Batch of 2 targets.
Target 1
Amino acid sequence: MTLRRVLVANRGEIALRIIRGCHEEGLEAVAVHSDVDHASPHVRAADAAVLLGGADASESYLNIDRILHAADASGADAVHPGYGFLAERAEFAEAVTGAGLTFVGPPPAAIRAMGEKTAARRAMSAAGVPIVPGTSQAAVDAEQAVAQAEAIGLPVLLKAAAGGGGKGMRVARTVDEVRKGFAQAQSEATKAFGDGAIYLERFIERPRHVEIQVLADAARTIHLGERECSVQRRHQKLIEETPSPAVDGELRAAMGAAAVRAAESVGYLGAGTVEFLLTPDGEFYFLEMNTRLQVEHPITEMVYGVDLVREQLRIAGGQPMSCPERPLAPRGHAIECRITAEDPFGGFLPVTGHIAYLQAPTGPGVRWDAGVESGSEVTRYYDSLVGKLVVWGDSRERAVRRMRRALDELVVVGIPTSQAFHRRVMDDATFASGAYDIEYCEHAGREVLETEPAADLVDAAVIAAVLAEDERRGAAVPLTPPAGTDGGSQWLAAARRGGLR
């Protein structure tokens, strides 16, 4: 089949990324948007745009009927789901193909096989992929969960069978915590996924979160190495890098082979990610498979030289992937920092507000993927991601230094962001050594989070940007300090008022 016009069923930076990929492949791109996103960069970048509905995602980006109507009205012949929203909903893929459109992603059966976590565990065990010891059937109630926990051995992890992203997940170290955690996880899973089924796994102490990128066309399945994703808060990733400091060539080959088996066992097509827990002694266990493009895909692109969006489009159009037959080896090192609209020194609570000024860093080996700009509004309706700052270096040490420089140059005025947290991590000895795990923020990284940066560390460039924006809007912030006041206080106050930490 030949693709001509692709509707991107998403928003923000991933929608913009896919639209650019379509244009580079010679395809037209259709954007969809809610009423609050009508002026977003992804809307302007597309060849056509269709209003879906209100700001609430249920009225827009999660409304399958409206998305299919938009595809029909715009003359699209394919739909790319991006990530989040409907990307891992088998019923959405089925609705797209049922409407005679091409779904840029895996077959619905593969999405469904990996979407239900206990079924996925059974399938992976049958395929010879190591899984964490635990149950492959959901517990019917708290007392059965207690019995299962005692059989597995405490501590255990209670997990939503239908979920991901840390929702519906609790660690239990005692029988009482199993009972309490079961009720909490079940309630959270029901709200998040409409399914309260909970299963149990042995809780592995201080593992690393390492995932393998896979790519499959009709003829073959390959892997493109690993990504280290262990710097997390509340099971949400903050920083990713590739290659992993903990993975050598032999382990990469073993994990890659397991990931390929996992993908082939469900008839996978396109780009996907198999996630593993890597223990301190080098054992690895299947965690889950994300049947979509990952947020952190740019670091793989920079190290392996593969455009994953382009490959998705090629494969969906019935073409073979462009990757060579020989296994690709990593070249250099890449790091991604997720810059979020959150206060890292206040528990990473999300914030909303107006981005008065945004200046992205530039230079060799620096990439800024964002769906916002100066003047954008960060609302309560969607996730808190502002942009992804990605760097490449010929070594890990050089990549860390380049990321530090890029973070110093990034300017976001108007809202608090995680920028200062990332800058501190780049200076942290534990991170620099590469000897960290998924509890980094609770242990080695605690000092990074406990002390709020002093106002005198605010960059002069940021202060200048605040003043320029205030002057443009006619705000009463003098360019020179009034007599009798601390010389820098008003400038620093302006920067602080802009939300910078």
Note: The first strand starts at residue 5 and ends at 8.
Target 2
Amino acid sequence: GKGQPLVVGGNASELLAKQGDPDICNVDVFVNVNGRNTRVNDEIRDGEVGGLIRYKEDALIPTWNELGRLAIVYADTLNQQHRDGVDLDGKMAGNWFSNPIDAGDIKAFGTNVEGLAPGASKVRILDTAQLMSSDYTVKFGESGKFSVTRESDGVRFDQDDFESVADWTGYLEPVDSSKAGVVYQDVASGIMHLNIDGLDITLGSKQGIAFAENDKVLIQPVRRGAELIDLELKAGRELGFASPVRTDAPVDNSGTVSVGKITVTDPQLFGEPGNAVSMARTLFVNNPPVELVFSKNSNGDTVYTAFDVSDPLNPVPYVFDPLANDPAKTVDPTNPARFIYQEGAAIGFNSFQAVITGKPDLGDKLSFSANTDAVSDNRNALQLSDLQGAPLIEGASYQDNYSRLIERIGTSASIAEINLQASETIKINAESVRNGISGVNLDEEAANLILYQQQYQAASQVINTAKQLFDTLLSATG
């Protein structure tokens, strides 16, 4: 690493694995030198310990967060569409899954001077379309100055990158698109509201005073998403597959006008999800049966007039909610009681929107009423099915996002396997070179033994011959 001594002479320092601060699941490695622990995660990149650290940082934690985000987006988007449907008992459907949008964790670092107030510190996901698979670290500086680091990509946002507001009324989108989010601070009381990446974060200090310089807070909005998702429906009858709005077109319509997607804009007007009040009594309390009649104005534009047909024999003009922001309703300049028809646009009624498509002929009609008999109606089920291909997670569908996750893990595993094989080959070659220099070759040693034996036998024959010659000479000289 950076030169931390592990073994010096007869003294050995201790290598420790400790729970992370403040995330106890994020185990860190320390070396204890003279009683002082030094974190060495970043210095250990090789060997078995280095491999485990790299796996944790590059695979485990990112995958954990990505699965959490996928579960949260899946539950949130499916629940929103399901709540637009009607079940077999004629009630507005409830949530299909539990939604862990407010199950994120906020943790103060152990080195903080000022801790967190548990009741006043929380994180809630309010826009899953902006949600990132990341943890966030908020660090405080002098006079309440702060910075936010998105851990997944290391991007840091300083206080000036946020749009500051003087008062807090709830989750806000920044007016300036160049800003990372919105922030409200009351430094004296230690309260801060922060919006970033679809998150609504509230931080409150434990003592009700300003956070101290170098205090840090870890925010984990998606970590436990996959762990906490659960089924909410208890029976098949609770599946909201039908649309709450019945649409009809007379058989004598000569044009091709038709109704597409129905979206509930104010579920409260349709009745509380899962209550025992029938749809017939609650659906159109503030939204009476409506009929659209199509015609042409003097400019040649196709226009429509809306009628309240609660009494079919005495229709009266339908009154649209004047507060509804509905750009599809453009008033006919030749007659303010009519609206110009825009093909494919969603017309906003008082508690729902309907997409109108096709080309109506003069006198064609469309009617909207409460779907009091939801049997044999799968319109909301089709819209639920359409979600599987919708680009809901950073431009990708549920399946595409999950496939990319599996592909990334599979690629990393394949690369690790190739690196392992390459390292084993290098190891074998190195051992061969070492053994060739300093090792013992049994075949070579056996050949040498035979050679030494032959040399010994030859030497013994020379000695024996010399002895015989000497004995012969002595006997000849008497």
Note: The longest strand covers residues 258-264.
